[in-house]
Amino acid sequence: MSPKSFARTAVVAAALALTGVSLSAQPASADQVVLDFLGAQGAFDNNPGNGAESWVWIWSGTSGAAGIEYRFYDNTSGYLEVIGHHTSATRFLDRDVWRIRLCVGSDRVKKTCSAWT
């Protein structure tokens, strides 16, 4: 996915979130999965088209903090977090993502997390 295409996708996802429309997660075998949870959104793409193997993206939406936990096929994981309303971040990765889940809340102990995709 080109930076311009990514930006366009992020704008559409944000607009949909503001209107209350949620994007349903696709099966984890898809190249791109988008997840909406408690006002936050996250995604991964295993074919971003920019030379990276994959990327993950998180947008906090109306929650004060949100994070995306991602797992690779070897069951190792990573976490990307944003603090503040309507804040987003992207991380490019060197291998394919297997699945994701979103967590919202400002305290790691008290975070509420979605199911895994």
Element pattern in H and E = HEEEEEEEE
Low-confidence stretches: 1-8, 18-29
> How many domain units?
1
Rg value? 13 Å
Measured between the Cα atoms of the first and last residue, the distance is 21 Å
The shape is globular
Q: Strand content of the residues, in percent?
A: 35-45%
Number of strands: 8
Q: Can you tell me the CATH class?
A: Mainly Beta
Q: What structural class should be given to the helix and strand makeup? A: mainly beta
- How do the strands of the widest beta sheet line up side by side? 1-2-3-6
CATH third-tier fold name: Immunoglobulin-like
Molecular structure report:
With 117 residues, this protein is mostly beta strands. It has a single domain, classed as Immunoglobulin-like. The chain is built from 1 helix and 8 strands; from the N terminus they run αββββββββ. Strands 1-2-3-6 form a 4-stranded antiparallel β-sheet, covered by helices on one side. The protein has a 4-stranded antiparallel β-sheet with strand order 5-4-7-8, with no helix packed on it. The model is unreliable at 1-8 and 18-29 (pLDDT under 50).
